[in-house]
Design brief:
149 residues
Length: 149
């Protein structure tokens, strides 16, 4: 987990709550925080996340002074790909695994690398306006756990 933040269970619960209530400071909304918060949401409020998470992230971005446009902020393809991958990751966890242990394992996995999506999409396709606005199928390699959208 070199370069990644280590979280305890309380940190992860707080990340998810602060995402939901739009009080997570922009400097704390890192890749690791995205993954840890999504892990917690999958484990605690799994139903409807494909539908709800986009609005949650967009609202959080705006609340911290960010924008959601064709060049920055919310990205549909990346969000849905990570959500599907995290769902599969959570399904394979041993029963009783704490959020802290689950997040540490997730961040140490290939998903912990911000470049993970580029193993499935070309840079041009992934960072297109089309992929930011809506789901775009991978053009390099199929996802082992595609989103159910």
């Amino acid at each position: 987990m070199t370069g990644m933040t280590a979280y305890d269970d309380a940190d992860i619960a707080a990340l998810a709550e602060r995402l939901l209530d739009r009080t997570l400071p922009k400097d704390q909304w890192t890749h690791a925080a995205h993954l840890a918060a999504t892990l917690r949401l999958v484990r605690t409020r799994n139903e409807g996340l494909e539908r709800d998470l986009p609005g949650i992230i967009r609202a959080c971005n705006v609340a911290v002074g960010g924008v959601n446009d064709d060049h920055g902020g919310y990205h549909e393809t990346i969000t849905q790909a990570y959500l599907a991958a995290i769902r599969a990751f959570v399904a394979d966890l041993p029963e009783g695994t704490s959020d802290a242990r689950a997040a540490a394992a997730l961040l140490a996995s290939p998903l912990g690398d911000k470049a993970w999506p580029l193993t499935h999409w070309s840079r041009e396709r992934l960072f297109s306006v089309e992929a930011r606005r809506g789901w775009v199928e991978p053009d390099l390699a199929a996802l082992p756990n595609p989103p159910a959208i």
